[in-house]
DNA sequence: TATGAATGAGGGTTCATTCAT
DNA sequence: TATGAATGAACCCTCATTCAT
């Protein structure tokens, strides 16, 4: 199994660094090879082609995302709490690896439609975690029974994603993790003034 | 003034069609020229370079977005209503021009960092419309006083954008406009079951 | 006759300025037209094509060269004196119009082989002036009877030309005209130490 | 070291042929590659860009010029003899490689100002050989003590260059090498009839 | 496995020239 | 005569991929 060999990971990590430092369109195979300390041709022993390298970057990182977040979620009881740790961990992982944040929020989006579709397939694993929380919340009566899971998932992911992208575009100059409580609040209660406060 | 000449608009419209049909990276100047019914060189009488064509596509379309939405908003009294017509019109404009939807939701995002930054500058006009609604809602007591405008704006835009992108990725196979009420509800009240309403 | 109309001269002078300021390859018809204060198309009412403009620049200027130099030569008696005023005037004309110097010594040489051949045809008028001086000198016994006119002409023209070109490449930072006596001396006597002087 | 690899020389030689046969402005990289029997891209493994190819042609050939001429000069005792073998070898090298003659005398002069300056830098090595002969001749009392080295160098180089260019423009239809003695004579003694000295 | 030299397709842009007004 | 908007051909260079070693 190629994916377990050390050079596989080595190339993936090199790709993240090269893309973050040079941008998507300047991330040539030769640069990735040099960063990984292998020859250009060697990359083709581990990956089918360049698209496969980029997709693998996303796949590996997303798997890590899902794993970490599933762990964190499991420890919480309520859907609201699960949602909170999901948001917080989403922000934390990006905060802890700024290169990864640049790559996923800005650079990989420059890939063409074909790769975008494949990336969206991989993303589904992550979105399912969200769906599970939403279904669980509805079952428990925490979330509104009439909630459309797909729409709610789009709201939550769209909000987290837009928040993270804005943070990267602002060159990480404020703390992303500390926005988690407010984002959580917005997602749970929306913008509307709630009864007591607005009175 | 070049921008008022008929060929200017003609080239912009041709660019939308070509990008939608061929994808960002396959939208060569020669294809756009052919679609517009002009010679390749003519494009350079109206635009500085290819990037200028693409940025102008976004600028012209976004101006149209802002204009239409400002008109619609002006007719409404409450912030909640303004927000509703904004969401509905955002979805309506994309629904009415599927090529435009493909271009703004998928293709133009493949532009490189430099163009992305310029596009983001143009986008600010649109985001400001959102900010005005949010501020207005807070003034009127409709929206919670403690609402962070920037975060709320990111939530709203992120939600609309993610909803629209998912719709495009699903090849417009369901009705986007009819999602507006639910999206509006989510943005106003969030996911949380609200005692009285859920009864 | 087109060549006597004011716009003909106007375009020629504009071409000299544009070529001197922008270089041969950056001397587009549109720049020359703008400098001359006419429309692009107007140039084609006076010249067959761009090559014709450039060749005409050379032809007009060379005619002026020949005329001025013939006048100066006529006043002198000996071949040596005629040669001296030729060298001095050659240097003087270039010194008095630095743009012309740049154009003839550097820029027009970048023209392609076809134009070079035509320019060489025009140059023949000038070289004939030299030939006449040489023949006259031989007749008068001033110049060595065995002198090969063509070779001597190449030596004289080559020397003047190389001297002028080096001066232009050095950005006119020394006085060209004052080199005339030494150049004259070299051409007459060569490098060799002459008996009496070397004693 | 790239310059020692066989393909480097191979591309240089191909460039000389292509430029001589097609002219400077028609010497496309693709033609040079085809002539060299390599792919277009291969040229860019050995040269930075097209200008680098052209400059290298001149640099390599000029180095050969300087080397051959230095060898020939070293064998001679007097400055006059050194000068003679320099002229003869200058003419001989061009005579032996007619393509090279076309390239250096006509085509490379069409390069733009930037490349011209770089070519002039390379040419300095050659001109220094001339300077050394002139200085040596003055030391030995062979050449006139008051000789201005720079001017004399310009005369000699200008004469040789003009003679060679005229020969190329006349399509090599007479023998260039056999002109060397007369050119040598002209350079040494000038045009002037030297009654007594010539006895 | 690993190397890295060689390949070759593909496109934005310029500008001399034309021609309807 | 004069205009200037429109034309469209032409080319350097990059880089993903291959394959002989």
Task: Report on this structure.
- 4 copies of one chain form a homotetramer.
- With 199 residues, the first copy, chain A, is mainly alpha-helical.
- Chain A has 2 domains: 47 residues, Orthogonal Bundle (Arc Repressor Mutant, subunit A); 148 residues, Tetracycline Repressor, domain 2 (Orthogonal Bundle).
- The first copy, chain A, has 10 helices and no strands.
- In chain A, 37% of the residues are buried.
- The mean pLDDT of chain A is 92.
- The interface between A and B is large, with 55 and 54 residues.
- Chain B binds a DNA duplex (21 and 21 nucleotides) through helix 2 and helix 3.
- Chains A, B, C, D: It comes from Siminovitchia sediminis.
Alpha-beta classification of chain A: mainly alpha
Unreliable stretches of chain A, pLDDT < 50, 5 or more residues? none
Number of helices of chain A: 10
- What's the end-to-end separation of chain A, in Å? 64 Å
**CATH top level class name of the largest domain in chain A:** Mainly Alpha
Envelope shape of chain A: elongated
The CATH superfamily of the largest domain in chain A is identified as Tetracycline Repressor, domain 2
The CATH topology of the largest domain in chain A is what?
A: Tetracycline Repressor, domain 2
Taking all Cα atoms into account, the compactness measure Rg of chain A is 19 Å
| Assembly state (oligomeric) | homotetramer
- Biggest sheet of chain A, open or closed, and with what strands and sense? none
Query: Mean pLDDT score of chain A, rounded?
Result: 92
Q: How many extended strands of chain A? A: 0
């Amino acid at each position: 199994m190629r994916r377990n060999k050390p050079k596989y990971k080595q190339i993936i990590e090199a790709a993240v660094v090269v893309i973050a430092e040079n941008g998507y369109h300047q991330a040539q195979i030769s640069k990735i090879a040099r960063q990984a300390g292998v020859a250009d041709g060697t990359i083709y022993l581990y990956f089918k082609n360049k698209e496969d390298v980029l997709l693998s970057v996303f796949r590996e990182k997303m798997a890590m995302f899902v794993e970490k977040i599933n762990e964190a979620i499991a420890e919480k009881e309520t859907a609201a709490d699960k949602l909170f740790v999901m948001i917080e961990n989403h922000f934390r992982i990006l905060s802890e690896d700024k290169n990864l944040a640049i790559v996923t929020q800005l650079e990989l989006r420059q890939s063409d439609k074909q790769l975008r579709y494949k990336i969206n397939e991989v993303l589904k694993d992550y979105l399912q975690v969200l769906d599970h929380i939403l279904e669980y919340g509805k079952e428990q009566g925490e979330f509104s029974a009439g909630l459309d899971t797909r729409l709610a998932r789009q709201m939550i992911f769209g909000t987290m994603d837009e928040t993270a992208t804005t943070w990267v575009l602002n060159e990480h100059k404020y703390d992303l993790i500390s926005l988690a409580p407010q984002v959580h609040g917005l997602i749970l209660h929306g913008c509307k003034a709630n009864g007591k406060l607005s009175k």
